Amino acid sequence: MERPALEVKNLKFSSGSRLIVDVPYLDLRQGECLVLFGPNGAGKSTFLRLISFLQPADSGEVYYRGQKVEMKSRQEMRKKIVYLLQKPVFFRGTVGDNLLAGLKFRKLDQKEQENRLKKIAAVFQIESLLHRRPEELSGGERQQVHLARAFILEPEFLLLDEPFNGLDVQYRDRLMADFYRLRKSTGLTTILVTHLRQEAAYLGERLAVMLNGRIVQTGTPEEISARPATAEVSGLMGHEALVEGRVVSSENGLLEIAAHGQKIFASGQHLPGEKVVLTFRPEEVILAGQQPATSVRNWFLAEVQELRPLDRMILVSLDCGFSLKAFVSRASADELGLQPGKKIWAGIKASALSTWPGSLEEQISERE
C-alpha cells in the first residue's frame, strides 16, 4: 500500500498556557486536495505554518513518504512546498517580474522561464496584466496573480490559507473554478484552509474539521455532512437546530421522537426516555402543495413565515409547531406560490436528521 505523501504525528503547539494545535495524526494523500475546515481561530493557519516548517512546533513529527523529516533535511523539504499567505505580498516590478522571481531563484534556464510564464499566463488569463504593476491591480486580479505565482513553480505540495477570502462573489466563483480545474488537471497535492462551508464542499476531496486546535473529524464532504461527529460539526456543515424532544422508541437505528405534540422519525442510537436535539440541513427539506405518497416518514403541515433570497436559492422559514427552514429554487417557490401565510407540506427523511443527546440550551452552552 502506497504511503501518504505527508503524515503528521503528535503535533503540538501552545502560546503561553493556550493550546493552539494538538493533532495526534493527519495524512495528506498523493494528488488530493485536503481542506482544513473550521471557524476562525481554530488553529488552521498555525497548523499550515508548522507543517511547512515556517514555525517550530513544541513537539511532533512530519513524515515525507514514510520518512521522518529531520532537522537537517527541513531546508530541502521547504523546496518541495509552496505556502501562499492569505494576503499576497509582491516584489517591486511588474506582474511578469513577480511571476518569474521564484523561477529565477531556483535558477531555471531562460527558455524554461519564458515557457512557464507564457503557459501560466494563458491558464489564468492574465496576459494583459503582465506589464502592469501589482499596485495597479484590483483585489481579484492580485489574488489571481498570487495563485499563478504558486502554480508556475510546479511545487510538489501547495498550501493555501484562505485564498479566496475578501473577494466579491462573482470574482471568487470564477477564481475558485479556475483553481479547481487547474489543480485537477495537474494533480497537485494540496492543503487548503477555509472557514466557508461552500468552499470546503466544492474544493475538498477530503475534509479535516478543526475545532480548538484539534482535528475532530475527517472524511469526504458528503460523509461529514451526512454523519457529523459532534453537534458543533453539525452546525459548521449547515445543519439547523430543529427541535428538542424525547425518544419514545428505538428499533434498528430508527428513533421515534415525541416533540411539540408530534411524532418525528430520525436515525440515531438513543434509548427510550432520553432527551435529544434534532438537527437537519435546509437543503434536505422537501416542500409540496399536497402531502405526497412517498417513503419520506416525516411530513408536517406548515405555514410560511418568511422568504429570504440567498444567491440563486430562497430560504423559506416555516412554522410547523416548531421552526423549520428549507432551501428551494426560485422556480420552485413560484410554482408552489410561496408567500407569508400560505399553508404548505414540509417533508424530511428520517436519514436526513441527526440527533444529539441533551437539550437546546445544553448544546448552545457547549458551543460557547
Short recap of the structure:
By secondary structure, this protein is α+β, with helices and mostly antiparallel strands. The protein has helices at residues 44-51, 74-78, 95-105, 110-123, 139-152, 169-186, 197-203, 221-226, 231-236, 330-336, 360-367, and strands at residues 6-15, 18-28, 33-37, 59-64, 67-68, 81-84, 157-161, 189-194, 206-211, 214-219, 240-251, 254-259, 262-267, 275-280, 286-288, 298-310, 313-319, 323-329, 343-348, 354-357. The protein contains 11 helices and 20 strands.
CATH topology of the largest domain: Rossmann fold
Number of helices: 11
Percent of sequence in beta strands:
35-45%
Q: What is the spatial order of strands in the main beta sheet?
A: 6-7-8-3-9-10
* Class inferred from helices and paired strands: alpha+beta
Cα separation of the termini:
42 Å
Low-confidence stretches: 364-368
- Report Rg: 24 Å
What portion of residues is helical?
25-40%
Q: Largest sheet, if any?
A: 6 strands, mixed
The CATH superfamily of the largest domain appears as: P-loop containing nucleotide triphosphate hydrolases
